[in-house]
Specification:
single chain; 452 residues; alpha/beta; Rossmann fold; Helicase, Ruva Protein, domain 3; 16 helices; elongated
């Protein structure tokens, strides 16, 4: 039984003998905290005794509370382990238990860091700084002591420790788009609409969501979208430009390769080469809670095998289930609901209906002649930024590549810059363009004189 220094002064009741006082005392009896009254001598010796034992009692109570937290956390972890048992192998006999001193110390440090950051962010919220927790503060503890004695397990243990250290350094919070930058984002979207007018419907859709968030002083919530159009219309190029305009990090995942669902949400731990997925890496090991993830060429995904590459999207593209997803390589639950998903495809017929139903679909057409010129100028500007020591390409030269797809324009301009460098020039002339590009234009256009 442990005694706490009472928080209220002693008092003398008429039924209490003279020279004594009834003192409210808190005690820990087994696993319960109780308050009792003790009649103690009302003198300085008793007061001094209570003061001498106060610090020790506080330590005992803190230890009791910590043990209670560990008990509840162990129950929670046990329930999650049962839920993950199908995808995560059971721990070995040499596994470090959750009651080990190292894990107890790690638990205390993680919780203290979480509480300190949470308090700091609450004070900064009015200044527009917005961060959200992307996983529970104790989730990284799952990475401690999971591996067994084999060589493969030792490699996995080293990997887990490295991931744990990275998560510990980053903390549980990640940044959301700063709401005081919405005005700049809207201006950048307006400029993007001028450069790529055949995407204006998409831009206006995003713009409306930003205006809604600005009026409500909330973070931007953007539903998943799907850009459908013929090859070369500029879907990928537009998405990269959009990420720059919105000042968000972007990760690209192309489905034209032999990927399975594990590429997004991690591979089973029983494989020696188990790896974390792109979503975990982008959010938990990144710095942003709301990055853009580009699902490129979604219609080329392998959906015929048991390792269907689109299966994880059923949860990831649904806002409710995206709040609680698991990377099976590390077994960590995290929040992916703030991600802005952009998918691209040439046609819809190869995309399953359940996936389509989770996406806002935009059907795109090839740009008109005027739109093609605007797009060519934007592409030339983006390519030139990679070679700033050269002069800006002349508008007449840009016109010569306007009939190409954005992908072909980039390739042609890169080759032109290379040709100019080979010839010791810092400006482009039409002869720097690939021969097949000039051949497609015909003799009249090629022979038309213009300044470089």
């Amino acid at each position: 039984m442990a005694f706490l220094l009472p928080t209220t002064p002693g008092f003398v009741d008429t039924d209490i003998p003279v020279g004594f006082a009834l003192r409210p005392i808190q005690v820990i009896d087994k696993d319960r905290l109780k308050k009792i009254g003790l009649i103690l001598p009302d003198n300085d010796d008793i007061d001094q005794w209570l003061l001498q034992h106060a610090e020790g009692v506080k330590t005992q109570v803190a230890q009791f509370e910590l043990a209670e937290q560990e008990r509840l956390s162990t129950q929670k972890s046990a329930g999650e382990a049962r839920a993950l048992s199908r995808s995560t192998p059971s721990s070995t006999s040499s596994q470090t238990t959750s009651s080990s001193p190292a894990i107890r110390d790690a638990r205390v440090a993680l919780k203290r860091e979480y509480e300190e950051v949470s308090e700091c962010l609450s004070q900064l919220e009015q200044s527009g700084v917005s961060q959200v927790p992307v996983y529970a503060w104790d989730e990284p503890l799952k990475l401690l002591g999971q591996a067994g004695p084999s060589t493969a397990d030792r490699h996995l243990s080293a990997r887990d420790k490295d991931v744990y250290e990275r998560l510990k350094d980053l903390g549980a919070f990640r940044a959301l788009s700063h709401r005081w930058t919405y005005a700049a984002t809207l201006d950048a979207l307006g400029e993007l609409g001028l450069q790529q007018p055949h995407f204006r419907e998409v831009i206006e859709f995003i713009r409306a969501r930003i205006l809604l968030a600005r009026d409500a002083a909330n973070p931007v919530v953007l539903p998943p979208i799907l850009l459908v159009g013929p090859p070369g219309v500029g879907k990928t190029h537009f998405t990269l430009a959009l990420a720059k305009a919105m000042e968000r990090p972007i990760e690209r995942h192309s489905f034209d390769a032999a990927y399975t669902g594990s590429a997004l949400m991690g591979s089973d731990r029983h494989w020696a080469n188990t790896r974390t997925g792109l979503v975990f890496n982008t959010i938990c090991l990144g710095e942003s809670a709301d990055p853009i993830i580009l699902l490129d060429e979604l219609d080329k995904a392998d959906t015929g095998s048991r390792n269907n590459a689109l299966v994880p999207l059923h949860s990831l593209l649904e806002p409710v289930t995206a709040r609680d997803v698991v990377d099976i390589s590390v077994g960590i639950r995290f929040d992916a609901s703030h991600v802005f998903w952009i998918a691209t495809a040439n046609e819809l017929r190869h995309i399953p209906e359940p996936i389509q139903s989770r996406l806002r679909i935009f059907n795109l057409q090839a740009p008109t002649a005027g739109q093609a010129l605007d797009l060519a100028r934007a592409v030339a500007s983006s390519v030139h930024k990679r070679f700033p020591s050269f002069d800006v390409p002349h508008r007449h030269l840009v016109t010569l590549v306007a009939h190409l797809t954005p992908r072909e324009q980039i390739q042609a301009l890169e080759q032109a810059f290379a040709a100019a460098a080979t010839n010791g020039r810092r400006h482009l002339v039409r002869q720097d363009l690939p021969a097949d590009v000039l051949q497609d234009l015909g003799d009249d256009l090629v022979n038309t004189p213009f300044l470089h």
